[in-house]
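Field log, afternoon session.

UNIT: design team B
ACTIVITY: writing a sequence onto a fixed backbone
BACKBONE:
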C-alpha cells in the first residue's frame, strides 16, 4: 500500500462520485469491482461470498476471484462459519482486516493548531498528536505540518497506506493548494511535496469537502442532499448531492465564508465587509458565549447566518444541514436559531424533511475526512 509521488491524487473538476454503487460493465476496469466489494464489506460488515454476490450484483465466480486476491493481499480475512439456522450450506463470512494498513490524517482547518491522527482502515484511532500553529504562514506553516507528520509516522504499527491532509482554502488537482490566505499559500503543491519527502502516497483536499466525505463514509449522512459547514477561525462548506461531492470547475464549490451576510458589517480578512465568516465562525461565537445575554446573541448569529444558508438549502433541495468544528458542537441556542430561521426562509416543501444538526463524528470530522480521502484513492473504499 505504500508508494511514491506518482500515486498523487488527481482531482477532476466538477462532481466526484464517492462510492461505487453498481457492478462495472465489461469495458470497465476490474478495479471498480474490487472497490465495490471492499466498500460493501466496509459498510455492511462480514458477508459470505454468496451474500456479496447478491449485494453487489457480481457473479460468484468474480466474487471468488476478487476475494482470493484480497485474502492473499491481507485485506480480507475469514471470520469463520456462519451460525446455524440458515437454510442451505452455511457460508464463511469474510471481513476487512482493520490493521491491513494505517492512514495518517492531518487537519489544518483550525489554523491555530494542527491536529493529526493515525487511523486503521475502519476509522479506529490508533494515535493522536497536535502542534501549535498560531501565526504560522508560508514555509513556517509547512514545517509545522512536517513536524506533525514526523511525530505520527513512528506511531503507525504497520504499513502506511497513505497520508491525507485537510487544508482550508481552494485545493485543486494533484493536491495543489491554489489559495489558502490564512497560511499565505498560493499554488502550493503540498501533496507532491509530502509524497516526495516521506515516499508515501499523499493526498490533499479542502477541509469542508473532506468533512463531507467523512459524514458519507463514517457517519450516517444520507446521500440525497447534504451540506456540512465547517466552523473554525474561517468558514467553509462541502456539498453532497445523490452521493456526489460537488467541487465546481474552479474547485471552489462550497466557499460560502465570503458571501455577504450583513451589508456594511464587520471587516473580514478578505478585505470586504459583512462576510458570513465574520458572523458564523469561532471568534464571534466565542465572543457571544462570554456575554451575560449569550443565548440571545447566539440566536442573533443564527438568524443572520440563515440569510446565506437558506438559499443554498432551497437551491439544492438539501435534506441535511450539518455543522462541524474542532472546538466541539455548536451551542444549542445557535443551532436552534439557525434551524428556525432557515425553515422560515424556505418553502414548506424544502423545510418538511430538513434536518439541522451537529456532526455525529465530533471534533474528528475533518480528520476522518482526510482519512476517507486516502481510503478512496488508495484502497477504493468510499
Amino acid at each position: 500500500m505504500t508508494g511514491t509521488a506518482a500515486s498523487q491524487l488527481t482531482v477532476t473538476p466538477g462532481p466526484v462520485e464517492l462510492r461505487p454503487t453498481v457492478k462495472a460493465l465489461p469495458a470497465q476496469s476490474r478495479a471498480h469491482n474490487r472497490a465495490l466489494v471492499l466498500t460493501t464489506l466496509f459498510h455492511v460488515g462480514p458477508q459470505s461470498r454468496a451474500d456479496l454476490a447478491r449485494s453487489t450484483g457480481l457473479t460468484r465466480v468474480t466474487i471468488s476471484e476478487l476475494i482470493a486476491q484480497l485474502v492473499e493481499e491481507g485485506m480480507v480475512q475469514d471470520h469463520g462459519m456462519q451460525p446455524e439456522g440458515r437454510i442451505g450450506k452455511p457460508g464463511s463470512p469474510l471481513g476487512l482486516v482493520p490493521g491491513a494498513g494505517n492512514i495518517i490524517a492531518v487537519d489544518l482547518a483550525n489554523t491555530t493548531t494542527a491536529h493529526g491522527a493515525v487511523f486503521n482502515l475502519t476509522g479506529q484511532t490508533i494515535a493522536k498528536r497536535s502542534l501549535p500553529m498560531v501565526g504560522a504562514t508560508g514555509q513556517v506553516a509547512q514545517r509545522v505540518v512536517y513536524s506533525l507528520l514526523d511525530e505520527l509516522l513512528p506511531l503507525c504499527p504497520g504499513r502506511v497506506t497513505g497520508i491525507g491532509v485537510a487544508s482550508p482554502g481552494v485545493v485543486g488537482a494533484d493536491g495543489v493548494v491554489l489559495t489558502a490566505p490564512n497560511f499565505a499559500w498560493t499554488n502550493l503543491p503540498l501533496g507532491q511535496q509530502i509524497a516526495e519527502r516521506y515516499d508515501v502516497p499523499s493526498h490533499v483536499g479542502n477541509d469542508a469537502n473532506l468533512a463531507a466525505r467523512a459524514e458519507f463514509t463514517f457517519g450516517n449522512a444520507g446521500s440525497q442532499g447534504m451540506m456540512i459547514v465547517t466552523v473554525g477561525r474561517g468558514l467553509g462548506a462541502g456539498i453532497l448531492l445523490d452521493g456526489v461531492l460537488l467541487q465546481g470547475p474552479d474547485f471552489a464549490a462550497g466557499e460560502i465564508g465570503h458571501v455577504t451576510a450583513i451589508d456594511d458589517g464587520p471587516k473580514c480578512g478578505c478585505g470586504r465587509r459583512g462576510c458570513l465568516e465574520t458572523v458564523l465562525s469561532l471568534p464571534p461565537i466565542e465572543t457571544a458565549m462570554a456575554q451575560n445575554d449569550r443565548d440571545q446573541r447566539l440566536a442573533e448569529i443564527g438568524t443572520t447566518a440563515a440569510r446565506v444558508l437558506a438559499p443554498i438549502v432551497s437551491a439544492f433541495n438539501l435534506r441535511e444541514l450539518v455543522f462541524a468544528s474542532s472546538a466541539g458542537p455548536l451551542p444549542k441556542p445557535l443551532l436552534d436559531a439557525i434551524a428556525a430561521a432557515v425553515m422560515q426562509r424556505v418553502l414548506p416543501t424544502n423545510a418538511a424533511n430538513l434536518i439541522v444538526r451537529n456532526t455525529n463524528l465530533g471534533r474528528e470530522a475533518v480528520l476522518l475526512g482526510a482519512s476517507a480521502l486516502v481510503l478512496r484513492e488508495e484502497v477504493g473504499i468510499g
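LOG NOTE: Residues 294-316 form the longest helix (23 residues).
NEXT ACTIVITY: expression trials, pending approval
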